[in-house]
Write a structure and sequence with these properties.
The complex is a heterodimer of chains A (about 350) and B (about 650).
Chain A: H1 12-33, H2 41-61, H3 64-69, H4 71-88, E1 90-92, E2 95-100, E3 106-107, H5 109-127, H6 135-153, H7 158-174, H8 179-200, H9 203-211, H10 223-236, H11 245-248, H12 260-292, H13 297-321, H14 339-357
Antiparallel strand pairs in A: 1-2, 2-3
Chain B: H1 10-37, H2 39-50, E1 51-56, E2 63-64, E3 70-82, H3 90-101, H4 105-114, E4 124-127, H5 132-140, E5 148-157, H6 165-168, E6 171-173, H7 176-179, E7 192-194, H8 197-201, H9 203-207, E8 211-217, E9 223-230, E10 238-239, H10 244-253, E11 259-265, E12 270-277, H11 282-285, H12 291-298, H13 308-311, H14 321-330, E13 339-341, E14 344-347, E15 350-353, E16 364-366, H15 368-373, H16 377-398, H17 420-427, H18 433-439, H19 450-461, E17 465-467, E18 489-491, H20 496-509, E19 527-533, H21 538-551, E20 555-562, E21 569-575, H22 581-599, E22 612-615, E23 619-621, E24 627-629, E25 632-635
Parallel strand pairs in B: 2-10
Antiparallel strand pairs in B: 1-8, 2-3, 3-4, 3-5, 6-7, 8-9, 11-12, 11-21, 13-16, 14-15, 17-18, 19-20, 20-21, 22-25, 23-24
Helix pairs in contact in B: 3-4, 10-22, 14-16, 16-18
The chains are: A mainly alpha (about 350), B alpha+beta (about 650).
């Protein structure tokens, strides 16, 4: 069987595009943090990318079937890790989402929970024999994603909790969701929305969710970030602004993480920003192609789970930068500075490679 | 293991691809909208973010005396201001700022409100001339109060103790009411402009033009670079006709008294000295002052802000007899007129007393000359009866009574010259002949300002040439100054013999036998006329008894010239509640004497070695216990050099 797992089957083309995006991200982190107290972040980012690539190769060699066999233990472990955050978590900026590792690093468990969820959802839907989903399948799948999602919501980290949702949606959609079921869920969701708005969401979260629609209403408060982001993107014009004053005079908040796309769009203009979007699009198309060639249903579900998370991140982050989406604190995968996010992306890609390298198993 | 599968629906996988394509098209549209369609708008917004206009304040022009000695100067100081483009809520910081800058927190909030309509990049000026302690507070709170900043400005430095305060005036922040007036429409809130006196009259010339610097700032308002600089144009210096030496003599002559002095060169109309008492400290009013300071000055019952030289309109009393005499001589009535003074006389059924009865004597037979130097009321009652109010009013009006003199100072008043027509117009009543008798000795409805009397007496002594008084040299002025409504020179034909008779009689006033014999100046050809004028009628005063006598003392007047032919100087003195004209004459004589002494290069006893201390707005001890003074210099009399400006604010180069 080992002859089937070779580096020839590794998706080198995908890697080229992924590393191109990472490279642009490192460049932009360097440019945005130069002369600030975050100077040197791009070097740290390079280390994270190197670590991510290492992790990716490791994950790709472990047969995903074996991973799927043990996914229920991993699921239990992930729920436990979220519990530990609730108990021992490091409180930072009013939310408990980090645990301090012995090495002094901060680790955000909700990132790797995403990986486990992709596997768990894939295993669940792959095991279903019927083409059509029953309501009980629907509720079980919802519970798999819903439990960790509620736990993250209580941290509170609305943004990350939302990133779990596309995994479930993708699984249900590909698992054979019936239109009737979809309509029922949408209706229920629509009825639940006002309850969630007033009972679950905290006032600052509500404010953040609405301010993107009218950023001028409070241009020094919560609308400030949105406004400065719009100004950064808009002032970039077609070819980019050579001065990049929004980024370099620190009008743009956190330009190396959540608003890295705004910083990039300011410095490289419409042409540059569109180029980055194109790179992401190519990556996503290549991923779906890998999903189609997967050896089994489970493999397809794994790859499409990664596609779902990646697309959702891009939609919410870039959507926020161009003013379509509220500020939720979701980073742009592969470009934004941050260890947890980079590691997650490369481990997820490792699973994709894992599936791809075993496509001729049958 | 899981291999027992039919593959997933390829339709749904393709659908996912199309959904992703739709998402990317949406995002690309978002980018296109911002970066292509609205790029101009956002570029402008980015520019507004990073570029800030910082004003460079132009120093006001200095004010100099006729010999070029500095009267009013500037010194550099720090002004505290608020930047508004930081995201802080200034009104919550107001308490802390108020504590550090010794200001009222509500005053600060009020200022923030007042400036709300200005563009965000324009700072709010909070306090001028902050002390080293307040500067240290700002430096120490850079992080807690990032909106609080300082700018270097030039603060006006006036002589201390109210020296020449009324003439020079003071500057202040342009008020909201002023900005609504057409002549101030091109000024901005926060501009410091002249509020009174010379500072107001010649504001445009003195003010200069602020420059600006375009600087690049980061999101914390920190300056990161400079794009462009338009230098400030300093205001033009203004030379006054005032002679500091004479001004000092006049200030000292009036020290501790209430009233005014005007000294003028009747040959040109140049004002040589102008004093009003009580006075105020313009240094305390200059710039941005608190409401309480302002209320304290304006509510003072002594009205220290009033420039009595041009704004006090009071009955001129016997000084008016000079105009009466001129009218009488010109009309050919007074030359050979002789009247017997028995201490009073009956006119139109009423008995009018002469002042001399108070001294239990009478004047006896009086001609015009004696009537002037003895100031006989009965003579002038008779003259008034003979002339009639219309002829009196005609001459008095020719000599400028009841009209502004046109001096180049704001808010001059007109005074009152009554006539039949005046009474009908103002009171809808017929003129009573008895009123003419009172006007004959400068009482009744007639009211004059010190500057009007100086001009009129100067004109009579100079053979009838009436000149418009002025404090700035007209040739020095920029074109944009509005010309005066009054002609610079008016000739009133007076027979030379007549004005010689009058001035000779005036010279006898300060000779033995005259009303101001004690003001005789040895070796100086000095002539003048005293006056004392009731502030209420004698009947009313008698009714009020001792209290009335103490409260409503007569005003003392004096107008004098030197020399008596073709005079070089005319002095008018008003001593409010001065009781007697001869006391006013003494004040006038002091001014005349120091004038003559200066002309003869004799060291003046009055103004000798009197140094005028200018400025020192605040004093503070620095770290080495050395006393620092905020703006300070000394005006040294009779020497053109002056001590240099002291260090203004620590840290300044």
């Amino acid at each position: 069987m080992s002859r089937y797992i070779s580096f020839r089957d590794f998706d080198w083309l995908l890697m080229v595009f992924v590393l191109l995006i990472c490279g642009l991200g490192v460049m932009e982190i360097h440019s945005a943090t130069e002369h600030t107290k975050f100077a040197g972040s791009h070097i740290k980012q390079l280390y994270w990318i190197a670590a991510g690539i290492g992790g990716m190769f490791m994950v790709s060699f472990l047969n995903y079937q074996i991973l799927l066999d043990r996914v229920h233990w991993m699921y239990v472990a992930s729920v436990a890790s979220l519990l530990s955050v609730m108990v021992f978590g490091h409180k930072y900026l009013g939310a408990r989402r980090w645990v301090k590792l012995p090495g002094g690093q901060h680790f955000q468990p909700s990132e790797w929970v995403k990986l486990i969820l992709i596997l768990a959802v894939a295993k669940y839907f792959a095991s279903l024999q019927q083409r059509e989903l029953t309501w009980s399948d629907f509720i079980k799948a919802g519970a798999i994603v819903g439990i960790p999602m509620l736990m993250v919501l209580t941290q509170p980290d609305l943004g990350t909790a939302l990133t779990f949702l596309p995994i479930a949606i993708m699984g249900l959609f590909l698992g054979g969701l019936k239109w009737k079921q979809a309509a029922a869920v949408l209706l229920l969701g629509g009825l639940m929305l006002p309850v969630a708005w007033f009972k679950v969401l905290k006032p600052y979260q509500r404010e953040r969710l609405t301010s993107f629609m009218n950023p001028d209403a409070d241009s020094h408060g919560s609308g400030y970030q949105v406004n400065q982001s719009l100004i950064a993107v808009g002032s970039g014009g077609i070819w980019g602004s050579s001065e990049g004053s929004q980024t370099h005079l620190s009008f743009l908040p956190i330009p190396q993480t959540d608003f890295i796309f705004a910083a990039f769009a300011e410095e490289h203009g419409f042409v540059g920003a569109l180029g980055v979007l194109l790179l992401y699009f190519v990556v996503l198309m290549r991923l779906t192609q890998n999903a189609q060639t997967a050896p089994d249903r489970a493999g397809t579900f794994i790859v499409m789970g990664v596609v779902a998370v990646l697309s959702f991140h891009i939609l919410v982050n870039v959507g926020m930068v161009v003013g379509f989406m509220p500020v939720t604190g979701i980073p742009l995968p592969l470009m934004s500075y941050g260890g947890s996010s980079v590691l997650f992306m490369f481990l997820a890609l490792g699973m994709v490679m894992n599936v791809r390298m075993r496509r001729f198993v049958n | 293991m899981f291999g027992r599968d039919e593959k997933l629906s390829p339709i749904r996988l393709t659908a996912v691809q199309y959904i992703i394509l739709a998402i990317f098209l949406l995002l690309a549209y978002g980018l296109w909208r911002l970066q292509v369609v609205q790029s101009g708008f956002y570029s402008a917004a980015a520019e507004k973010n990073r570029v800030r206009d910082v004003p460079i304040l132009a120093p006001r022009g200095r004010i100099l005396d006729r010999e070029g000695r500095t009267i009013v100067d500037n010194y550099p100081s720090f002004t505290a201001l608020l930047l508004r483009d930081s995201s802080r809520d200034i009104s919550t910081d107001a308490e802390l700022i108020g504590q550090g800058l010794n200001m009222d927190a509500d005053d600060i909030r009020e200022r923030v409100r007042k400036f709300a309509s200005l563009p965000q990049y324009q700072p709010i000026y909070l306090k001028d001339d902050i002390t080293p302690d307040e500067l240290a507070f700002i430096e120490a709170h850079r992080n807690e109060l990032p909106e609080l900043d300082t700018i270097m400005s030039h603060r006006r430095l006036y002589p201390r103790n109210g020296f020449i305060a009324h003439l020079v005036g003071y500057v202040g922040e342009v008020s909201e009411d002023m900005l609504n007036l057409p002549q101030w429409e091109f000024y901005n809130p926060g501009d410091v402009v002249g509020k009174s006196g010379i500072e107001l009259q010649y504001n445009q010339s003195l003010m200069g033009k602020n420059g600006s610097r375009q600087v690049v700032v980061n999101s914390h308002g920190k300056e990161m670079g400079q794009l462009e600089e338009i230098p400030a144009e300093p205001g033009k210096p203004l030379k006054l006709t005032i002679d500091i030496d004479l001004q000092i003599a006049a200030e000292q002559a009036l020290e501790g008294k209430n009233g005014a002095i005007v000294a003028m060169d009747p040959r040109t109309g140049e004002i040589l000295a102008m004093v009003s008492r009580p006075t105020y400290d313009p240094n305390a009013l200059a710039g941005r002052i608190s409401k309480t300071t302002w209320a304290k000055v304006t509510n003072d019952p002594d009205h220290p802000l009033l420039n009595k030289a041009i704004q006090a309109q009071l009955a001129p009393g016997s000084v008016f007899k000079i105009i009466m005499a001129t009218a009488g001589l010109q009309e050919g009535i007074a030359k050979d007129m002789k009247v017997t003074c028995n201490g009073g006389a009956n006119f139109y059924g009423r008995y009018f007393k002469c002042w001399v009865v108070a001294e239990h004597r009478v004047h006896g037979v009086v001609d015009l000359t004696k009537a002037i130097y003895q100031s006989c009321d009965v003579f002038f009652y008779s003259l008034a009866e003979k002339l009639g109010i219309e002829r009196i009013a005609k001459y008095a009006t020719m000599f400028g009574m009841g009209q502004k003199t046109g001096v180049d100072l704001p808010q001059e008043v007109t005074g009152v010259m009554p006539s039949e027509e005046w009474k009908i117009r103002n009171y809808k009543q017929k003129w009573y002949a008895g009123e003419t008798i009172s006007v004959g000795i400068g009482q009744g409805a007639i009211a004059a300002t010190p500057i009007q009397l100086a001009r009129a007496i100067g004109a009579i002594a100079s053979g009838g040439i009436l000149r418009r008084p002025h404090v700035a040299f007209p040739t020095d002025l920029p074109n944009n100054v509005v010309p005066a409504a009054v002609a610079d020179e008016q000739r009133i034909p007076i027979d030379p013999k007549n004005w010689e008779i009058i001035t000779d009689a005036m010279a006898d006033v300060v000779n033995p036998g005259g009303t101001a014999a004690m003001s005789h100046l040895q070796g100086i050809d000095f002539a003048g006329k005293t006056g004392s004028a009731q502030t209420i009628s004698n009947v009313l005063k008698a009714k009020m008894g001792a209290m009335g006598k103490a409260k409503f003392k007569d005003n003392g007047w004096f107008a004098g010239v030197e020399p008596r032919r073709n005079p070089e100087i005319v002095v008018a003195v008003l001593l409010e509640e001065g009781e007697h004209g001869y006391l006013a004459a003494r004040v006038g004589a002091q001014v005349i004497k120091s004038y003559v002494e200066k002309q003869h290069r004799v060291p003046s006893k009055i103004a000798q070695n009197q140094k005028v201390d200018v400025g020192a707005v605040w004093t503070a001890a620095d770290a080495d216990d050395e006393t620092l003074k905020g703006g300070h210099f000394v005006l040294d009399v009779m020497k053109s050099k002056r001590a240099p400006l002291a260090v203004a604010a620590p840290g300044l180069q």
